[in-house]
Automatic annotation (TrEMBL):
<keyword id="KW-0378">Hydrolase</keyword>
<protein>
    <submittedName>
        <fullName>Aminodeoxyfutalosine deaminase</fullName>
        <ecNumber>3.5.4.40</ecNumber>
    </submittedName>
</protein>
<dbReference type="InterPro" id="IPR050287">
    <property type="entry name" value="MTA/SAH_deaminase"/>
</dbReference>
<dbReference type="InterPro" id="IPR011059">
    <property type="entry name" value="Metal-dep_hydrolase_composite"/>
</dbReference>
<dbReference type="Pfam" id="PF01979">
    <property type="entry name" value="Amidohydro_1"/>
</dbReference>
<dbReference type="InterPro" id="IPR032466">
    <property type="entry name" value="Metal_Hydrolase"/>
</dbReference>
<dbReference type="InterPro" id="IPR006680">
    <property type="entry name" value="Amidohydro-rel"/>
</dbReference>
<dbReference type="GO" id="GO:0016810">
    <property type="term" value="F:hydrolase activity, acting on carbon-nitrogen (but not peptide) bonds"/>
</dbReference>
<feature type="domain" description="Amidohydrolase-related">
    <location>
        <begin position="85"/>
        <end position="357"/>
    </location>
</feature>
């Protein structure tokens, strides 16, 4: 074991609390952190200690706040979002426990500290609750666009959710009404009200693509053709943005996390902020599926907590949430990106953020 002190630094050093530091560092002795602080302060405390540059960032373990682990065997896809939906349906046979196991193993190998997963199959939920050694939230996905079947869908799901909740351990159970275009208004209300009453956290995909916005506003575009091909009801459009649609239904609140939220304007972001919702951005997936650029400046202006997720292996090259941040390095303040990949993710998942302090093991320090 090397006992001579070193000072580790990076472009951004974040301890899991406070403000990420641009000229910060860690004094390291052996396998532990001996001191944290500004680089000059550390050099005064440890004169002569070599300064070791560790790359872009030094942080606690990152949190991947949004993925679909059971799509880990899905071939990678780039192209329009509606094409991706068809791609998922065409490769549905590969979904299930083995794919989720593969995804969880990848997260573990990457050193992720926590995860949020959208679960489409009961068997995957059972497996995660019984086998995951990583903390996180498994959000049971619900799809039901037919308003006439809303009560039947909810009645079938409710006892299963309550049974899963009794089995919570390192993994908590959440609920994910899939999206504005795949869940009817009556089913949305039933699910979100139930989640609030029983304490289930919620994630909803919203305002992900231009096609979704066209469908919600005017019932136009690729979603109309897709819904008809799938023999699903095409609704009378509410004529507002996807975010405003959820707000008008009374669905937004502190227990609800919105995923993607790319196709928004300032009025939408103001609604999100006033409701106390958090947001998860998946930059590489949004790029590959032609969804547009996430408006970081708007969210920062209105004080919305933003976390980072990878989405699935079907639309992202890997499950490393650090690569989501590095994809935007130089375009967005790196301190914002580092906080989103760590504290933002843990806060979305309702978990305590790991902290780097004097005495912390170096195994709990990630170098990007």
């Amino acid at each position: 074991m090397r006992l001579e002190p070193e000072i580790w630094t990076a472009e951004v050093v974040y301890l899991g609390f406070g403000t990420p530091m641009l000229r910060g560092g860690l004094a390291v002795v052996g396998d532990h952190v001996a001191m944290t602080g500004g680089l000059e302060e550390l050099q005064r405390a440890y004169p002569g200690a070599p300064v070791v540059h560790k790359g872009k960032a030094l942080t606690p373990p990152v949190a991947n706040a949004h993925t679909h682990l059971d799509l880990s065997r899905l071939p990678y896809f780039e192209g329009p979002y509606v094409g991706f939906i068809r791609h998922v349906l065409a490769n549905g046979a590969g979904r299930g426990v083995e794919a989720a196991r593969q995804g969880l193993e990848e997260l573990r190998a990457l050193g992720a500290g926590a995860f949020g997963d959208i679960v489409a199959r009961d068997a995957v939920m059972d497996w995660l609750l019984g086998h995951s050694d990583l903390p996180g939230v498994a959000y049971r996905e619900v799809i039901g666009p037919d308003p006439g079947k809303a009560h039947d869908v909810f009645a079938a799901l409710k006892p299963q959710l309550l049974a899963w909740k009794k089995r919570e351990g390192r993994v908590k159970v959440g609920l994910s009404p899939h999206a504005t275009h795949t869940v009817s208004a009556p089913l949305f209300r039933l699910l979100v009200e139930f989640a609030a009453l029983e304490g289930f956290p919620v994630q909803i995909h919203v305002a992900e693509s231009p096609e979704e916005s066209r469908y919600v506003r005017r019932a136009e575009g690729g979603f109309v053709e897709f819904m008809r091909q799938m023999k699903l009801p095409v609704w009378t459009p509410p004529g507002v943005s996807p975010v405003q649609y959820l707000a008008d239904l009374g669905l937004l609140g502190p227990g609800v996390t919105l995923v993607h939220a790319v196709q928004v304007d300032e009025a939408d972001v103001r609604v999100i902020a006033q409701a106390g919702c958090r947001v998860v951005s998946c930059p590489r997936s949004n790029r590959g599926l032609e969804c547009g650029e996430f408006p970081w400046a708007l969210y920062l202006k209105h004080g919305v907590e933003v976390a980072l997720g990878t989405d699935s292996r079907g639309s992202s090259p890997d499950l490393d949430v650090r690569n989501e941040a590095l994809h935007l390095w130089g375009k967005v303040d790196p301190r914002v990106l580092v906080r989103s990949a760590t504290r933002g993710g843990y806060r979305v998942l309702g978990l305590q953020t790991p902290r780097i302090t004097r005495g912390s093991a170096l195994s709990q320090v990630q170098s990007w």
